[in-house]
Amino acid sequence: MMNKSYISNPIGKLFLIAILFIASISAGSAQDFKKVMDLNERWKFSIGDREEWADPEYDDSNWEWVDVPSAWENQGFHGYNGYAWYRKTFDKRQLPENQALYLQLGNIDDVDEVFFNGKRIGKTGNFPPKYATAYKSYRRYNVPAELIKETNTIAVRVYDDVGEGGIIHGDVSLLVDREAIPVDIDLSGTWKFKLGAYAHENLNNIDNWDDIVVPGNWENQGYKDYDGYACYALEFELEEEFVRERMVLILGKIDDIDQVYLNGVLVGQSGEFNPKTVKERSSSWQQIRNYYLPINLLKSEGKNTILVRVYDATQGGGIYTGSVGLISQDHYIKHWKSRRNRY
């Protein structure tokens, strides 16, 4: 396995960058990304760590300016290891409307947590005291549509242990996924999460479950090298107009297999929910999950609860990419007709 001392060698570093670039292309091949804003430019920067720096209203006028991407050691902070923050503000008018937005940050050394207008949209690696580096991971985070405002602020919290630190390599930009399903209700963002085959049996304790960002591999969010069972849960409210519609639940792509309940009713699964199914359906992790919901199952009074059980056999696990939300059947049909006409 490569270690960070390897990349101090210039040849080794170039080799690693080439590998990461190829891996990032492979990872995104199932999606049709188009760059809509270049963020390879100067960002506001400060060493240190304060919670309020995620707030879009925070006054960062006295912060330093640094180039992104580039290690902070190359920009006057040689030898610094620890916490630092980056901030960037941009105007919504520069973005296309009604398309799934992603923030691409390339490679960050070592750990990051990303906020969009004050809301966390992604995390890769583990911060101290349970530190785990993720310097080899290519960062690309979904931006929930409801977070986008006229003026938007990106805040990136970074922790570096040794060697280079910061947003160091890659194309830093905003992308749209032209293949994304345009859901009517976006349910991406923070969900509740718990490991274990029987986590779903105790929903009364859901507030004590961990938080996790959906979509995103669970390995990048504190569960490194975990293979096995886990459970996602989300409570949400819904307006009456959607209750009367025939709706489809979209859960992006899940690695490897899943079993999904809505308000206590089984609404779908990717084959029989046991480890043998992974061998029988080896491409399941590449399939978009779309589950048609029975009429009258959703409710407008009180909260609706989605429960997603997942079994991961190896490597990446969880609800890892794609649109997550609810779309009316009529809009879903329209989406697939438009795709058909595109090819």
UniProtKB/TrEMBL annotation:
Keywords: Glycosidase, Hydrolase. It holds the Pfam family BetaGal_ABD2. Residues 49-158 form the Beta-galactosidase jelly roll domain. One of its GO terms (molecular function) is hydrolase activity. Coiled coil: none annotated. Gene3D superfamilies: Galactose-binding domain-like (2.60.120.260). It comes from the Bacteria. PANTHER family: BETA-GALACTOSIDASE, BETA-MANNOSIDASE. This is Glycoside hydrolase.
